[in-house]
Predict the 3D structure of the following.
Amino acid sequence: MPTWTISAEPVTGTGIDDLMSQYFSEMGLRVLGRPVTEAELREVLDSDPHDDLGPPHGEFLVARDGDGALLGCAGVRLLTGAPVAAELKRMYVRPAGRGAGLGRGLPAAVEAAAQRLGASRIVCETNTQLTEARALYTAHGYDETAPYQGHGRADHWYVKSLGREDRAEHL
């Protein structure tokens, strides 16, 4: 049984900015091969803000340990122009939470949130250097697909049907 919980919280909640900084710092090191500058962080947040990872068109999920410490997060938002498609964003597990099953728990929680929002499929993007993310998506039934509208700078795009009736629709 997991020693963590996952629940929806405001993306503006206490500790979330620090968690996002850790996320972007790790992404910078892994993808760019160097630390991210403050200017780059502002640029990515301006071009792809996470304030829409909350009601009414999104949800921000936070994983916490039994003492309430932040272990990780993931967001989901409906895509503009495609109300039946949701996008998985900002999935991150702090080093303290790795190996505890959050790689199964967070995607399942995001998919359930996407269904609650009315999505019939979920999409996400990642980079070649993030081999763990690519393996995780494939293991969870995501198929590699073409780039979708609204994506950031990525190398790989994934889609998964959430079992609703319009599975045959294309992005």
Summary: The longest helix spans residues 16-32. The chain has one domain: 4-161. The domain at 4-161 is CATH 3.40.630.30 (Aminopeptidase).
